[in-house]
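Illustration: Putative membrane protein.
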Amino acid sequence: MPTEPPTEFRLPEPADDQASARRTWDRRALRLGLGMTLTFVIALAYDWTLAYLAPIFTAPLLQAPRAPTPRAAVGILLVTFLIMALCLVAGGVSQAYPALFLIALFPALFWTFRSGLRGGSSLVMILLLVGLMLVPMVANTTVEITRDVAGSFVGNIGISLAVTLLLFALIPPLPTEPAPAPKPVLPAAEVTRRAWILTAITGSYAVAYFSFGWTNVHTPIYIAIYAFSANLARGLTVTKGILAANVAAGLLTLVMYQLTVMAPHFPFVATMTLAVGLVLARMITSDAPWAPLAGFALSVVMILYGESIIPFSDAGGANFADRLGEIGMAAIYAIAALCVLAAYFPQKQAGFGILPDPSGQHPR
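Result:
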């Protein structure tokens, strides 16, 4: 770098880089906030089964560097249909032979977590977890709506893909946007260790669910996702941050719900959702270390707020309290179980040190 000031009038290169990065973050935040709000509004207007979960599937699609091609979008939809069809079969098995289903569940969960830890598609992993956990548990509780539940995920993915293609067409990526950073690669032994830990956490809850006849069908999904995300975070500070993000999201959603009770009008709900979505989306798309925690908060807000007001009904308060309790319990159980199992089954040592953590954080 020269020590003399430039002779021509222009901003120094670092400032140019910062301005370019800020424009990129702003456009990504606008795309994410508008897309999730549009998906939420569509779900609120048409209210199909589990419509409030649609924005959760829109988020990872909109955070991708590029829109999926039409061929890729059709492929995602077909994969979703296939997963749900197979899980309907699993639901029938869980109802007739619960012990056989639980025996088969553990290797299926292990394969799913192992694929995710090796850098597989997060969207496909979430779909597999939903199919393996939610659909059979719904079949064990209420057989009549099992097909509606499975079909709703095909519809949710279809709406999410349509919104994603629309938003990428309206707000395309800038030509100067940097390429996404490559995903960290874990050693094979570490992938296996973490996958078995996650399988034990999620599968043990499934065993308890079937053994005691519980009916809170959403909780196992939250446990699986929280455990997987906390496992990738690999740090006590980040783990505490996940819990703090959930508490903050719960308080924010409580305020949103009370405002909705005072003004239960569609335009007001849409405007408030857009404002909250844009603020959280800007946090998510920044390069701040707590950006992933904002992603947790946005997902929790969409789930809590969505189920409490879709549809507008007198049961909204009860739905909000029930789902808040499920999410809080799932977060505490997943993180506590992860800490205990990680302490009993620590990382294997290589040579004179511990295997390096590709996330860049020191192991606990």
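Reading the tokens back as a structure: The longest helix spans residues 13-46.
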